[in-house]
Design goal:
The protein is an alpha+beta fold. The protein has one domain: Hotdog Thioesterase (Thiol Ester Dehydrase, Chain A), CATH 3.10.129.10. The protein is built from four helices and six strands, in the order αββααββββα. It has helices at about 5, 35-50, 55-60, 135-140; strands at about 10, 15-20, 70-80, 90-100, 100-110, 115-125. A six-stranded antiparallel sheet has the order 1-2-4-5-6-3. A hairpin with a 2-residue loop joins strand 1 and strand 2 (about 15-20). GO terms for molecular function: fatty acyl-CoA hydrolase activity.
Length: about 150
């Protein structure tokens, strides 16, 4: 299977990534441990960037002229319903805004049509010294933000 198939798909500006719940994702009750949703959503954000042509390894290697990294600065979570072992979940990710050195993404984790968790995630772009940096115009365009 190629990397693109593993990275999910983009439909109407939303990234969709399917994830199966494994035993290791659950707590003693058989329900997904709450912190594991953060991992699922991280995979969604990373694969969305990957399908847009923005790769963490290339950024870290200085592809834009300076080594850059994404860090989560703020996250708001709203838990609605639990996921259980063997469930197939869809992590939906969409960009809300990209301004300066920060981006805001909306994410939803669903089981079928049932929303399990919703999140608003603010990520910042920083250099190796931890200083905020704007993404290069080429990267902004790959993410669908041509101006600003």
């Amino acid at each position: 299977m190629d990397d693109i198939a593993l990275a999910g798909r983009i439909e109407a500006g939303h990234h969709l990534l399917q994830i199966r719940v494994y035993y290791e994702d659950t707590d003693f009750s058989g329900i997904v441990y709450h912190a594991n949703y953060l991992k699922f959503m991280e995979r969604g954000r990373t694969d969305f960037l990957r399908l847009c042509g923005v790769h963490h390894a290339e950024l870290a290697a200085g592809a834009g002229g300076e080594a850059l990294h994404f860090v989560v600065r703020h996250m708001e979570l709203d838990f609605h319903a639990p996921a259980r072992i063997d469930d197939v979940l869809t992590v939906e990710t969409r960009f809300r805004e990209l301004r300066g050195a920060r981006m805001v993404l909306d994410q939803v984790v669903r089981r079928g049509a049932t929303v399990l968790i919703g999140a608003a995630v603010t990520a910042a772009v920083i250099n190796a010294a931890g200083r905020p940096r704007r993404l290069a115009q080429e990267m902004r365009e790959k993410l669908g933000f041509a101006a600003g």
